[in-house]
């Protein structure tokens, strides 16, 4: 997109930048003319001639133009100056590299004022941003461009481009809040330009695409992934309008959006975009292209998230064939590890172990890939209940990862989280919590990993609940809820599970009112994200009934328990046991209501059933599913 920006600025240069010298000339010559038009906006408002000290032979008096009496022999000097300016502009426009552009710019600084250099500053800033080697220098030119081009406060496509550039460079410097501010200004300005038809749609679209794409990147980096999807989708819509129907670049854009949806665990929305990318790349590049291999990799991730593991494995195998034919050994190795994990998901543990034994021979002794192989091996052995062997594999992996924390903090944090799950399965909660805390410490330093930070915090809170350390669990759960609301949106099912566990924690601490508030929030989220008849939505409603019962609010408790009964009835014969239990609880509540005044509160909270802490899938699904998508990074 930065190339597109440079292309647009070149177009604008042809329209406007070449007009600098004529404007200067007309302004200078016509000042004393009774019929002179208003001075050019590229000139300073006091109409004084500027010195050109760095240009030999061109020294101009600093007198008011209105009182200047010109002599005939001064004309050639002015013409020489105008020609020199024209030559400097030509030299700048013909420059190809950033070094050549900077040299030409330094020469121009002697003869042009700050405002006149706005376009040149913008072009250099775009070039430096595209190269990405010196963002601080790029920012200095971006600031110069914005200051020069935005002096009169009038909306223009150039001001929008300058704002986009400042936002882009701040993103490169990880100054995300600053970046977001400039990009939002650019977005608002472009909307105004389009509405008022100040600029052509053809000029607006490439800048709008750059702004939307950058907004998506910045919000993703800030952990606001759900919000970022809206911007990324708008960027894709612009590409759909401007690019040819089946071009490679459009296919990549579809794949990127599929990956973005998968990163927030919305695999259903991700799938059609992934399939569209595959369709385009197969048609344009053939079945054996690297782009097709990448499309199949992301489809494997999506199908894994949808728990369609056979389809995931099929995509993985097809991707491996392509990677092997191109000799891409590093990508092939990761693909083989993914295949082993898919075999584990399908319960093919022996096959997975044999696959991993073959892969480990291809890895270096202290490499991250070797650690990943041992993590997967530990997972397969854990599923076979060969716990001692599993622990040995996981210890080897931890030994490797310990040396990689400063080099690859995000990858190591993900690996610690994955290892902790295996220890959790083996009921080694202390080790699992210790690993998660190490993961959390690494992620807290990575603002773009806010969603992972929230997921890890949720799992720590969950494990502390299982250990009975309820007061210690609550801060982790509260923190996770706030982080994941910002990352995934307030109605994401993962946020609902956290509020459900918070409710259970408050109920355990004899705080039924707080518990009821948390369960009510959880129910509202799950009804929207999962539907009111999903088993987890039903059990959250059951928990809400328990909380009202603990408060002595039996009419409310009965109302929600009736909803539980109705929901289980809708499941038919598959939920007969759950229905009988729900009906039994309803009758108990009716009995209590008949014998108790509605104003009478129990002196002790009702005991919390074991399953209320972890409804069937509330064992932190957001963390587990997030890990499934981890290979997309």
Automatic annotation (TrEMBL):
For this protein, the record's PROSITE patterns field holds: TPR (PS50005)
What are the start and end residues of every segment in region (Disordered)?
610-633
UniProt TPR repeat ranges: 413-446
**What domain of life is recorded for the organism?**
Eukaryota
Question: Keyword annotations for this protein?
Answer: TPR repeat
**Compositional bias annotation for Polar residues:** 612-633
Q: Which PANTHER family match?
A: KINESIN LIGHT CHAIN-RELATED
Protein name as catalogued: Protein KINESIN LIGHT CHAIN-RELATED 1
Species, as recorded: Gossypium hirsutum (Upland cotton)
Give the gene name: LOC107924529
């Amino acid at each position: 997109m930065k190339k597109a920006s440079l292309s647009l600025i070149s177009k604008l240069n042809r329209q406007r930048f070449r007009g600098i010298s004529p404007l200067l000339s007309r302004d200078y010559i016509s000042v004393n003319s009774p019929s002179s038009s208003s001075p050019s906006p590229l000139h300073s408002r006091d109409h004084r001639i500027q010195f050109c000290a760095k240009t030999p032979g061109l020294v101009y008096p600093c007198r008011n133009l209105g009182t200047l009496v010109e002599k005939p022999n001064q004309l050639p000097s002015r013409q020489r100056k105008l020609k020199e300016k024209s030559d400097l502009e030509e030299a700048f426009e013909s420059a190809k590299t950033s070094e050549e552009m900077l040299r030409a710019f330094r020469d121009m600084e002697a003869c042009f004022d700050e405002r006149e250099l706005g376009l040149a500053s913008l072009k250099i800033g775009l070039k430096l941003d595209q190269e990405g080697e010196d963002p601080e220098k790029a920012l200095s030119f971006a600031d110069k461009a914005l200051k020069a081009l935005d002096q009169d406060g009038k909306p223009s496509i150039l001001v929008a481009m300058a704002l986009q550039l400042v936002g882009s460079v701040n993103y490169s410097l990880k100054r995300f809040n600053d970046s977001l501010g400039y990009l939002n200004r650019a977005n608002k300005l472009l909307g105004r330009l389009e509405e008022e038809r100040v600029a052509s749609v053809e000029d607006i679209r490439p800048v709008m695409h750059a702004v939307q794409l950058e907004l998506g990147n910045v919000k993703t980096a800030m952990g606001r992934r759900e919000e970022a999807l809206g911007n990324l989708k708008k960027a894709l819509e612009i590409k759909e309008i401007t690019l040819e129907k089946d071009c490679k670049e459009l296919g990549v854009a579809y794949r990127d959006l599929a990956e973005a949806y998968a990163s927030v665990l919305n695999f259903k929305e991700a799938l059609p975009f992934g399939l569209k990318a595959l369709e385009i790349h197969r048609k344009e590049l053939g079945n054996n292209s690297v782009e097709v291999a990448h499309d199949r990799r992301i489809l494997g991730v999506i199908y894994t998230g949808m728990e369609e593991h056979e389809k995931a494995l099929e995509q993985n195998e097809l991707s491996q064939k392509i990677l092997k034919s191109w000799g891409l050994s590093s990508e092939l190795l990761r693909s083989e590890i993914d295949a082993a994990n898919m075999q584990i998901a399908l319960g093919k543990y022996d096959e997975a172990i044999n696959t991993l034994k073959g892969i480990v021979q291809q890895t270096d002794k202290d490499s991250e890939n070797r650690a990943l192989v041992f993590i997967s091996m530990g997972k397969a052995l854990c599923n076979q209940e060969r716990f001692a062997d599993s622990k040995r594999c996981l210890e080897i992996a931890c030994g490797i990862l310990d040396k990689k924390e400063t080099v690859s903090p995000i990858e190591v944090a993900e690996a610690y989280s994955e290892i902790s799950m295996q220890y959790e399965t083996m009921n080694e909660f202390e080790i699992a919590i210790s690993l998660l805390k190490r993961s959390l410490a690494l992620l807290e330093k990575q603002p773009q990993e806010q969603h992972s930070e929230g997921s890890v915090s949720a799992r720590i809170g969950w494990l502390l609940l299982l250990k009975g350390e309820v007061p210690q669990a609550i801060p982790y759960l509260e923190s996770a809820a706030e982080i994941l609301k910002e990352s995934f949106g307030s109605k994401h099912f993962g946020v609902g599970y956290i509020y459900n566990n918070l409710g259970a924690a408050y109920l355990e601490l004899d705080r039924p009112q707080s518990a009821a508030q948390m369960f009510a929030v959880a129910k509202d989220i799950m009804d929207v994200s999962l539907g009111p008849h999903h088993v987890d939505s039903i059990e959250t409603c059951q928990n809400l009934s328990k909380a009202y019962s603990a408060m002595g609010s039996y009419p409310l408790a009965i109302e929600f328990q009736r909803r539980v009964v109705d929901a289980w009835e809708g499941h038919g014969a598959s939920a007969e046991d759950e229905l009988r239990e729900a009906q039994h609880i309803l009758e108990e509540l009716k009995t209590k209501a008949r014998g108790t005044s509605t104003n009478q509160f129990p002196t002790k909270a009702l005991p919390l059933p074991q399953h209320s802490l972890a409804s069937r899938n509330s064992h932190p699904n957001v963390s587990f599913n997030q890990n499934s998508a981890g290979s997309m990074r």
